[in-house]
Amino acid sequence: MTPEKIAYFKDRLLQELQRLKQQIQDLGEESPTEPGHFNVRYPESMSNSEDDNAAEITEYSDEQSIMARIQDELKDVEDALKAVDNGTYGVCKYCKAEIDEKRLEARPASSSCIKCKKLFTQEL
After folding, report:
1. What is the spatial distance between Cα 30 and Cα 5, in angstroms, rounded to a whole number?
2. pTM (2 decimals)?
3. Suppose 92 and one of 42, 58, 71, 113 were both cysteines; which one would form an S-S bond, judging by CB atoms 3.0 to 4.6 Å apart?
4. Rounded CA gap, 93 and 89, in Å?
5. Which of the 8 DSSP states describes residue 28?
């Protein structure tokens, strides 16, 4: 991969990093006991009705799932940026083949080629 392409993907990864960090800030705050882990803020409607309490619990549960997905995506982006820095970006972590640029265009944080991704997720 050319240095220009790597710079292009690094820029996209940095943009994605900022977007994900903003989403995390919008949903919660960093855990005081687990650095790097974020907790969702519990929604408070200030009502004591059972319907409102059920809605709060549902919203909280949904946002916990969203936060977990965002944290997974954030880790992938951070790992991809480390790969850029150590010169291994765009190389499959399993078979060491170059990852197709179309795949990186669709998901710049990809760490595996399509063949290995399908193999390890049983999509063959």
Report:
1. 34
2. 0.81
3. 113
4. 9
5. E
